[in-house]
Design brief:
The chain has helices at 10-19, 44-50, 60-63, 80-84, 99-116, 147-154; strands spanning 22-26, 54-58, 73-75, 90-92, 120-123, 134-137, 140-143, 158-161. By secondary structure, it is of the alpha/beta class. Helix 5 (99-116) crosses helix 6. The longest helix has 18 residues, at 99-116. It is globular, with a radius of gyration of 14 Å. 44% of the residues are buried. It binds iron/sulfur cluster.
Length: 169
């Protein structure tokens, strides 16, 4: 299944972010210690972009039932949409299949966006859940999006990463 091309409309997505009263945001970008390694990625540019907007924090992997810390995982082939379509899986390095948890977390993120009226999501780049422009495959940066980013995009939510923000470029 093809990836979407979020870079094509970055300017429009930045405008959508500026105008959005409610934004769904990766919890690690807000300082929650929910990364696979127990760390966080509080990002000043993200805090500036959010300003006084209402923010819906979510960590899809934790919401999906995974613990922190947890083993790192990658999408085995293709991108998040392939996982959503049953054509790919999310695996740890030892081969444990985390696909169900990743899909559960992505659906909970989609439901949170719907419930709270978030038309924009600001997500952590490079993650197998939250990556917007890039994920990792075989340890290498690869163009594509994570499972949550893909499912949010498919639901009509404008997705951006912290690297899409003007001060990050
Ligand atoms: Fe959770 Fe997404 Fe941050 Fe990973 S990138 S820790 S899934 S919020």
């Amino acid at each position: 299944m093809n990836s979407f091309q979020p870079n094509d409309d970055r300017a429009a997505r930045l405008r959508a972010l500026e105008e959005a009263p409610v934004v769904l945001c990766s919890a690690c970008l807000l300082g929650f210690h929910c990364r696979y390694d127990g760390d966080q990625r509080l990002t000043p540019a993200v805090m500036r972009a959010l300003g006084d907007k209402a923010v819906v924090p979510i960590c899809p992997e934790v919401a999906g039932g995974l613990s922190t810390p947890r083993p790192p995982a990658e999408i085995s082939a293709g991108s998040g949409l392939a996982v959503a379509g049953g054509q790919s899986r999310v695996l740890t390095r030892s081969g444990e299949d985390l696909t169900a948890a990743f899909l559960r977390g992505a659906e909970l993120a989609r439901e949170a966006a719907r419930r709270y009226g978030a038309s924009v999501a600001l997500l952590k780049e490079g993650s197998p859940s939250c990556g917007v422009n890039r994920i990792s495959q075989n340890g290498q940066p690869t163009e594509g999006q994570g499972v949550t980013a893909a499912i949010l995009f498919r639901a009509g939510v404008a997705v951006l990463s912290e690297e899409d923000l003007p001060s990050s470029t």
